[in-house]
Amino acid sequence: MKEMRIGVGYDIHKLDSGCKMVLGGINLASSKGSLGHSDGDVLIHAICDAILGALGECDIGIMFPDTNSKYKNADSVEFLYEVKNVMRRNGCRIINLDSVVICEEPKIAPYREKIINKLSDVLEVSSDRINVKGKTSEKLGDIGAGNAIESQVVVLLEKG
Questions:
Q1: CA torsion angle for 107, 144, 19, 65 (degrees, to 10)?
Q2: Can you give the pTM of this predicted structure?
Q3: What's the pLDDT band for 125 if we cut at 50, 70, 90?
Q4: CATH number for 51
């Protein structure tokens, strides 16, 4: 019997009017973008942490530290490629990935398929194994005030 491994990922970033909004490797039209050392892609950061967690590896803060200038303004898709390589070296593959992005703006639905297709290409997994949902926080807290964006991810890996 093959071993199954579950990982959970989470990320949150402050929003700033001087930044681009990048989500799942896709540029989204928005009045504010995600502030981060890299491109601030909360979805990819949470996916990386979910995969690394399922593998029992370190988190992306250790793998791609914000103290290293090499990662300043980096494309988070490159992080995901590296994490995918770690997953492969560990003999694992994605069974499914479920994610939620919480923000007031932009709305995720118009970009959903494009994001899923991008993630499918990078991870080399069928798009029907990836789910991306957009939610608001009903105007509550920093996310509801439009000051932050958050993502939560669960991934199921198969080893062997």
A1: -110
A2: 0.96
A3: very high
A4: 3.30.1330.50
